[in-house]
Design brief:
Length: 285
């Protein structure tokens, strides 16, 4: 049996639960669109942001962004039009392709890019990069492990960033600048993308997460595979709801072993699917 059918069986009921729970009645809908792996677009009204949207490596495990969806993103075909900002969590090939990102930035002169220093370095290493008009819109997020979070504003966006060690820390990937972005749109909707965060509560400084609720968290699925981790996302990161990303699509044995662990967990597994962010849960702190 292939990996994909197992994944669908494991999550088919979850999608129904998730879609009922994430039902918004407000006239301004906040919505998350899945692209592939860790790639997600979030929109509220006319404001749209992208997380880890362009890459070409799946390592034989993960969902690539379908080429037709990638073409629609470049062509700004609705709903992929009017993007305000792109956020890159870290410089790994299954999250970030510098040539694709640079091409996208060239094609869309109003888009701002926020990325860790390692990813920005890769952009600068491309042959003859057209710096004029592109790198003026590239914002480097330079954080060491343990540094206090950064906070900046861009039009209708409040952008908060903190470095969280990558999965495998401290034996592997300890030097990877994995950035967790918490973005608030229009001072209303807050979404947190955790990149490939390592599952250790010690990495999450309480004072930062206590400052603001997250209405929708986008954690890698390994932060959802035990009740304790799910409780952590709810009580420590203050996430009202979570939809897992970075879900393996082609490893049948691993998925089969995790079916029970992931029962009742909402996951993004099909590029193009969406979740509405419930306005009933959106509230000021």
């Amino acid at each position: 049996m292939s990996g994909k059918p197992i994944l669908v069986v494991a999550t088919a009921m979850v999608f129904g639960v998730g879609n009922v729970a994430l039902c918004a009645d407000d006239h301004v809908v906040s919505r998350a669109h899945y692209l592939g792996n860790g790639g997600v677009m979030v929109e509220r009204g006319d404001t749209k942001i992208l997380f880890d949207p362009l890459f070409r490596e799946d390592y034989g495990f993960y969902d690539l962004v379908p080429r037709d969806l990638e073409r629609a993103l470049f062509a700004a075909v609705p709903p992929w039009d009017g993007i305000d900002a792109v956020f890159i969590s870290h410089n790994h090939d299954d999250h970030f392709d510098p040539a694709l990102i640079l091409s996208y930035m060239q094609a869309h002169s109003d888009v701002e890019l926020y990325a860790p220093a390692q990813a920005v370095y890769e952009l600068h290493q491309l042959d003859d990069p057209p710096k004029d008009g592109v790198f003026g819109r590239v914002h480097t997020v330079s954080l060491d492990y343990g540094d206090p979070p950064t906070r900046t504003e861009m039009n209708s966006l409040l952008i908060e960033a903190v470095r969280i060690p990558h999965l495998g820390w401290p034996i592997r990937n300890s030097n990877v600048e994995n950035i967790a972005f918490r973005i608030t749109i229009d001072d209303v909707t807050t979404v947190t993308h955790l990149g490939d965060a390592h599952a250790d509560v010690a990495h999450f400084e309480a004072s930062h997460w206590n400052e603001r609720r997250t209405h929708l968290a986008l954690p890698p699925y390994w932060l959802l595979d035990t009740p304790e981790k799910r409780e952590f996302l709810s009580t420590h990161i203050h996430a009202d709801y979570s939809v897992g990303v970075h879900v393996p699509s082609k490893i049948a044995d691993k998925l089969a072993a995790r079916r029970i662990e992931l029962q009742g967990v909402d996951l993004f597994t099909r590029p193009g699917e969406t979740r509405n962010i419930p306005v009933s849960q959106i509230r000021s702190e």
